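Re: beginner question about structure tokens

> Can someone show what the tokenized structure looks like for a real chain? I only ever see the sequence side.

Sure, here's an example I had lying around. Input first:
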Amino acid sequence: MGSGAFCEGCSLASSGKGFVPVDWNPEKFTGLMIVGEFPSDSDVRESKPFVAWSQGGSLLAQSMRYAHVNRSEVAIVNCISCYPPKGWMAGAPWEFT
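And the corresponding structure tokens:
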């Protein structure tokens, strides 16, 4: 499922529901990076962190509008890029290696 040059060794890369890559445009990047904890199920479905219709994405969009920051000018990433196979609240049958 998930795969990336920086997380091949993590057990979530092979057992997680999906990998959510960094959302950024290198041509418009202003140097601001927004870092979340981990992707939501909605983020995995869209393969994009903080999708606008999710709770976290909606709050981020509001905050960015308030700060006059355009999403296309920032990099948005999660510390953990994969969603666990049974969700975050289902216990932890996986471990980081």
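Each token stands for a local structural state, so reading them left to right follows the chain. Confidence is low (pLDDT under 50) at residues 1-5.
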